[in-house]
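Quick log. Single chain, no ligands specified.
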Amino acid sequence: MRDDNDDVADLVRSTRALDGGEPGLTSPAWDEVPRHRHHVLVCCGPRCTARGSDRTARALASGLAEAGLGDDDVLLTTTGCLFPCNHAPVVCVQPDDVWYGRIDPEAATRVVLAHVLAGEAVTEHQLPRHCGGQADGS
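-> predicted structure:
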């Protein structure tokens, strides 16, 4: 049975050192905004990183790949601090404006299966969203 460590080891074996001969910093392929329907942001600020956001990001990437979803479906992005740090690791799904807290790898899998694939928020990890001084009830 493979685990995250096997996936990371495979990834490390497939990398190569940068030598300056890489393609340029621009490409016609990078002119347009990707056509994704969801953008999943994974906080990798210091507190989220300390609480395992690297494992969260890997679990999200694995779950999306296993579901056959690529960048045209879901754009997965690691970010700097998203706040609220007390709920680390934090994940945000756009354009749904749904924020999740304490997303460990198991919860990350549920976010992919329930939210991204089925359109249902994972309520036990969903954080209330405050807009204009009032919670929106989510």
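The domain at 34-129 is CATH 3.40.30.10 (Glutaredoxin).
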